[in-house]
Amino acid sequence: MRTAAVSVTDAGVDAWASERLGAARAQRLLSLAADPGVPVFFGRTDGTAEAGPDGAPETFHIGRRHVRDDAGDPVVIDWRAPMSRPFYQASAADPQGVARRRRFGFAAGELTSYEDERLAEGEDDGGAGELLRAEIERPRSGPMRDIVATIQPDQDDIVRAPLTESICVQGAPGTGKTAVGLHRAAYLLYTHGDQLARTGVLVVGPNKAFLRYIEQVLPALGEVEVDQATVADLTARVTVRTQDAPDVAVLKGDPRMAEVLRRALWSGIRKPVDSVQVSLSGKKYRIGEERLKRFVDDLRRAGTSGVDAAQLVHYAAGRERLAMSLAEYARRLKEAGGGSPTDAETRRCARSAEVRAFCDAVWPAVDAAGLVASLFSDPEVLARAARGVLTEEEQALLHWPVLPRSVKSARWTPADAVLVDEVAGMLERTPGYGHVMVDEAQDLSPMECRAVARRLGAGSLTVLGDLAQATSPWAAQDWAQTLATLGRPETTVRPLTRGYRVPGEVLDLANRLLPTIAPGLGAATAVRRDPGALRLRPVTTLAGPLASVVSELATTEGSTGVVCADAAVPHVVALLTAAGLDVAALSDDGSEPARVAVVPATLVKGLEFDHVVVVEPAAIVAAEPRGLHRLYVVLTRAVSSLVVLHREPLPDQLAG
Ligand SMILES: Nc1ncnc2c1ncn2[C@@H]1O[C@H](COP(=O)(O)OP(=O)(O)OP(=O)(O)O)[C@@H](O)[C@H]1O
What we know:
It comes from Modestobacter muralis. 39% of the residues lie in helices and 17% in strands. The protein is an alpha/beta fold and 656 residues long.
């Protein structure tokens, strides 16, 4: 196929055609470029004799993309094609026409092993084969890998759900939520490529370190047309310079703020107090006050009380339509007098100085950041918009203690940026994607959910998260509220319960926190156990034991994360560096993590390391209000081994 693409000859029709052909050929070659580290296929299904044509059993190889032979017949089937489905879904109980399933093991592009399940003879490994274990335990370096070779049936159900279906996946740590979400995006792009190429796919993640970690997965799957962003990226309309205190952040993330902003915006519209004279192709027409009032009222109603949110007239569009209403009215007057003004003349009238001046007076142009700044700067302005919605104490929390010299130079916070974006979304329609995937969704505030919902348009949603890992102060107790605020209240919540990442011994430890942090939420069951995976080490001094553990791990293949309370990061880096170890702190600028990385506890969510050393759990718990939730996240990052070093006693819940 590569040779055929290279040898496409340029018939030399014209320069434009040649250029297009060249671009198409380059694109095709890119899509055919093989990663030498991954095989052309990783699985095979042999059909039962009856299932094949002429009674002969059919054999399919399954791979990352389809491959044809010279005659154009398929030799490898794309994992996303309907024909590949039995590879993922067939079982001894429901063989789906598959007599034997074979999985291949590879290392550095070389075939190293294979594993068979003779489904026709009632034999299947229940998704716990050696190859799955080997794949999970393969040492990690760099970004996240795809799991196409070993997607499990419950995961596959989610990956292949129809595009129109919005899904919320509630899954314990390491159950494959992120992996499943990304594979779903790849599946949807494959299955509905034309539609999604127009509307796009958006992946929303918690921070840059996380996006960096997942960014390679989709290109590795052959999909490149996906935008990846944090909520901060999506709402970057003002320069964020500082953080809010937690109580202020909670208030600014509260959905009541949307009502306050809505009122503030639309209450800026004033009643016309006089008639207006407009000119249309050289003649002047007077429009009476009552008629002007009706124009304004009708448009305001269309902007504030539509039956369907999608039909609401945006503020800026309302302004344009008001100008057009005046011009159209003048046109009708002129026509009644026997004139026949053209569309261009009518539009010119709508842009005329008199009409502009009228619109500026009754329907003033609004700057989103300016509106939020005026609310925070002027208690009276805020009180008018917030009366009956926020208490006086709450209003007081929102006031800026020091007024900024300009809107631009204000000390905006991340929560403010979301509010500014909310206003911008009322001013003008925000372009929406055809599918939006939100990871770590348990941490979004209601106002952040609204920001994501604005990008959703008419599309569908994949929400991934774990209520037990909710560390933000506005954390929800259940998914209903989040899904409603994301604009898809009817979304079904699907649990994933098999833990792939974390060995059973480590998961058992972390699960002891669950009754306290998320009562009622089911614990995951680990697919693997390893007696050596967990070491709890009380110590009297930190420096020596830490250096010796880390230097021991540094000699192993794969990645090591030393996780500690954020404030302890410089100290831990200094201790390890003084011991001659090559370590670096992980930062949130999206740069590549070091092979041995010191990771602030608040940045570790969604990431994983072959080996994790947790330093002083009590300090991690003490650092924030939802510290036990944070500790649960921290304890569930290890693929192969977890060492816990502590001078202070472990939290009571962990003592088993
Ligand atoms: N079917 C699978 N085959 C092989 N590896 C898998 C499979 N499912 C998940 N994994 C691996 O398990 C690890 C955890 O997956 P992932 O990060 O998607 O979990 P998660 O549910 O998002 O976890 P968390 O909530 O802790 O962030 C990853 O290394 C992933 O590649």
